[in-house]
Design a protein that fits this description.
The chain has 167 residues and is mainly beta. It has 2 domains: 67 residues, wza like domain (wza like fold, 2-Layer Sandwich), CATH 3.30.1950.10; 72 residues, Outer membrane lipoprotein wza domain like (Outer membrane lipoprotein wza fold like), CATH 3.10.560. Helix content is 12%, strand content 32%. The chain contains 2 helices and 10 strands; from the N terminus they run ββββαβββαβββ. The longest helix has 13 residues.
Length: 167
């Protein structure tokens, strides 16, 4: 069996969402109900099992790249001209902690900003500082302090910490 690699997160600079552990995708192969799946969750390694192909590693790949990968592999001895569609059903969560009313994990929504993430967490506490914010990106990149504004884009898998302000 072939091992295929792929990850979901927003690609640097191109705006394409890259898959990662925890994402849920829909795979549709036109005219092939046995090869179509309503919900496939990527496991901790960013892989999923697919008929004929075995473990497909999706970590770091876009849905379009997964479409091409599955179509190419199915074309190689299984189907004459497969039409494959891969779409993200549920994005992995982002996390917010510190000086917010309800810290925890929340479902990512496209277009999410720090301001909207704070609103989802019930708003800031009276001690919160919007200037002392740390965002650890799902890809390991860290942004601190003044670089993070209320308009900063939040990505799936991000961890946000709102510190106390000094009065």
């Amino acid at each position: 069996m072939t091992l295929i690699v792929c990850q979901l997160a927003l690609a640097e600079g191109d705006g394409q969402y890259k898959l990662a552990s925890g994402d849920v995708v829909r795979i549709a192969v036109y005219g092939e109900a046995d090869l179509s799946f309503e919900e496939v969750r990527l496991n901790d390694a960013g892989t999923f099992s697919y008929p004929f192909l075995g473990q497909v590693k999706a970590l770091g790949k876009t849905p379009n790249q997964i479409e091409e990968l599955i179509a190419d592999k199915l074309r190689d001895g299984y189907l004459k001209d497969p039409k494959v569609t891969v779409s993200v059903i549920t994005y992995r969560e982002f996390y917010i902690s510190g000086e917010v009313q309800k810290p925890g994990g929340y479902p990512y929504q496209p277009g999410l900003t720090l301001q909207r993430a704070i609103a989802l967490a019930g708003g800031l506490t009276e001690r919160a500082s919007t200037k002392r914010v740390t965002i650890v990106r799902g890809n390991g990149e860290t942004r601190q302090g003044e670089k993070a504004t209320l308009e900063t884009a939040i990505l799936p898998g991000d961890t946000i910490t709102i510190e106390q302000g000094f009065f």
